[in-house]
Structure formats: structure tokens, C-alpha cells
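ok so i was messing around last nite and threw this chain in just to see what happens. nothing serious, just curious
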Amino acid sequence: MNLTNMVLIALLAALAGYAVFRTWRRAKEGSACCGPIQQGVKRTGSADRNKAHYPYRAEAEITLMTCDRCAAKVENALNALDGVWAEVRIDTKKALIRSKEPVEESVIRSTVHQAGYGVGAFHAAVLREPVQEKKQF
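result:
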């Protein structure tokens, strides 16, 4: 056996050992694409959950999400925007974004991108015209 064969065998053995270790660790701890399941991401949500307070609505297709942790990260990033209540579903890979004021598509795209994901199709609508408060004289 020459030196080249010995180095190749050592490399293959190291790679096989690493693969066994990673498989054992995943089986022991459980995992998602974003890391161990045990360190789940808590969805923060919005304090105001009255749908009547959110006359603006957008729906965005979220790309690169593969698990519920991904969806929670995107949802938390969007909910950090002022006046926004977002719900993200992994099964449809879509975000429903409600807002009290119009939110620019570029802001949504930038926020999702900063969370590590992308936005595909984007549709915005006004559910109803915002009610103007009457001035009392």
C-alpha cells in the first residue's frame, strides 16, 4: 500500500466518522433546518389583534423557508415593524401582513431579506378605507 492510498483511506474514515457523529447527534437532539428543535423560536405576535384596526393587507410568498422555525423568524421580523400584524404559515409558504398604515413593498422585502429569507409574489390591498375621526367643535 502506498502513501496516497493510506491518505485517501484516512480521509474517507474521517468523513465516515463525522457522518456517523452528525447522524447520532440529530437522532439524540432532534433538529430542524435552523438548528436544534429544543431551542425553538417563540412567535412574538402583535399586541393588538383586533382585525378591524388593520385596514391594509398584503400577502407575500416567502421563499427559502423549510420549517416552522423559519416561519416564526419571518413572522417575528415582520411583527417588529410598527403597526404590523403578520402571520406566516409554513404549509403555504405565505405571509399574511395586516397593517394600520400602508407599508411599502420594499420595506416588507427588506425585512424578510434581513431575516434570511426571500419574497416571491407580493399582493397588497386595502380592505376598507380607514375611518377618519370627526373633529369635535
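not much to say yet. Residues 1-30 form one domain.
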